[in-house]
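Q: Predict the bound structure with zinc ion.
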Amino acid sequence: MKIELEQNNKVFIFEGSNKWELHPIWLRERVSEKEHLDKNTEQRLFDPSFLKDIKINKVNIINKLLDIEFSDGVKSKIEIDKIEKEFNSDAFLKDLIKPVLWDSNLEDIKNFKFKDNFFESDEMLELLKSFYKNGFVVISNVPTKNNFIVKFANSIGSIRRTNFGEYFNVKSKPNPNDLAYTPLPLSPHTDNPYRKPIPNIQLLHCIENEVSGGYSTLVDGFSVAESLKKNHPNFFKVLTEVKVKFRFVDKDVVLENVGQLIELDEENKIKQVRFSTRLDFVPALEKEKLDLYYQARNKISEIYNSDKFLIKFKLMPGDLLMMDNYRLLHGRTEFNPNEGNRFLQGCYIDYDSSEGKLRHLLRKFI
Ligand code: OGA
Ligand code: ZN
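A: Predicted complex:
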């Protein structure tokens, strides 16, 4: 990226083979002298939405500074490095949080070990990079006393409380309000598709696991969706179109939300998967359309559950699994509660936690 001046006080930016003029208001918004910008918060002391018809009366480049005089009388020295950073860091972050799809041959799983000052360490930066790459990470040695999961979540960002509380205890219990609280197997699912908005990231922390079953399972939903798109495009299409209702009911609350099993973004890229066959209610569409939908759901379920995509491992006390609930599906195999205790604690955080921490650590270490 390069900045050059042209006649009539115009500032041009060159990037690759592209060239365009920087808008005077865009530059005026970036004035950062102390009378215009609060140094602690980096927040503006002026309101740029009031600015109209701003022009550049004078501009020079002196020592990597844009020395500018605007038509409203404001004079400023804007660092060209800062303008460059604005372009580069957006692209850098976008690249860093791009998923790398996997199937059950996934290798290269980096293991993390909890230690003092973990959340401010360069190890935490590696953890977040790995989380965005694979959609999950496992951290061992996380203290298992005093609901440490809450501290863990709040040290990355802020815990996302739900009607299950700040955190929830996953163990087999009498009169459960969710099948998670039984010894039954849980086939691959995304959590809480009935919430608005759906929690972004789930943490599951193993406190006890004395049973011989109770293995954890994970599937890369984006990878499965891509495979479906390639091999069964008509199934892929219907799953991106039909909006399914998801519903949770207990004695205190009725939660509902709707969405496709595969949701695409504006560029038709896979944005989010939903799958929870314990609580999905497809609308009563025309029989032919539903025929196709049901075949597609069978197929995607078969792939989600297949050895080609599913990985299986056992969480041991102190292990904490952090996973992307918009990308990955998780589950567990059944267990026999008479063999001993199986006890996990879970909670949610949102992407502003992981992304906010990532930007902070990038600023600190890079
Ligand atoms: C859950 C869940 C998995 C497990 O509580 O959402 O999927 O290993 N639990 O018990
Ligand atoms: Zn779950």
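A: The helical segments are 24-28, 80-96, 122-134, 148-156, 221-231, 233-241, 287-304, 351-365.
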